[in-house]
């Protein structure tokens, strides 16, 4: 066997090994990119969109509750329907009104709009906890705000 024939055989094997190594590195990078794509490109912007939508929803609910408080009769009942978005980014969400205690004597009501890992807390503007507002709902359908001067 001549020296030139052996050189050609070695060159073919090294080209194949080089091709396999480069392909393995590129496949590894592709797999890592595919695994990170959902978190970086989709989940982050979706959470940001949810946060801003939840901010608008909680501020709207807070405003409507304060409006009911301002026109509420001293004796009697008041019921109003409000419409909030059915879903945000194609998924439902929860709205809760809860009392938050800042210390032993002071408390304030806050509206919590949440889904999965994203939640937004906003205080019930202007009335604090003077009425003892409570309740929860979801985005679907019409929602009611009820005022009863007897506290029932």
Helix content: 40-55%
Whole-number average pLDDT?
A: 81
Distance between the termini: 103 Å
- Percent strand equals 25-35%
Basic shape: rod-shaped
Whole-angstrom Rg = 30 Å
| Oligomerization category of the chains in this entry | single chain
The tally of domains stands at 1
Main sheet properties: 4 strands, antiparallel
Total strands: 6
The secondary-structure class comes to: alpha+beta
Q: How many individual helices?
A: 1
The SSE order reads HEEEEEE
List low-pLDDT spans: none
Strand order of the largest sheet: 4-3-2-5
Task: Please give a structural write-up.
With 152 residues, the protein is an alpha+beta fold. It has one domain. Helix content is 45%, strand content 27%. The chain is rod-shaped and about 100 Å long.
């Amino acid at each position: 066997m001549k020296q030139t024939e052996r050189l050609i055989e070695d060159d073919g094997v090294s080209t194949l090994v080089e091709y396999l190594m480069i392909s393995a590195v590129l496949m590894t990078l592709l797999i890592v990119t595919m695994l990170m794509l959902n978190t970086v490109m989709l989940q982050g912007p979706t959470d940001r969109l949810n946060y801003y939508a939840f901010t608008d929803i909680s501020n709207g609910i807070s405003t409507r509750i304060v409006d009911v408080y301002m026109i509420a009769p001293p004796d009697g009942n008041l019921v109003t329907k409000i419409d909030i978005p059915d879903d945000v980014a194609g998924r439902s969400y929860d709205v809760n009104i809860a009392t938050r205690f800042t210390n032993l004597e002071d408390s304030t009501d806050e509206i919590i709009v949440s889904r999965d890992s994203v939640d937004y807390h906003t205080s019930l503007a202007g009335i604090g906890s003077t009425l003892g507002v409570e309740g929860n709902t979801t985005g679907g359908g019409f929602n009611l705000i009820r005022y009863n001067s007897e506290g029932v």
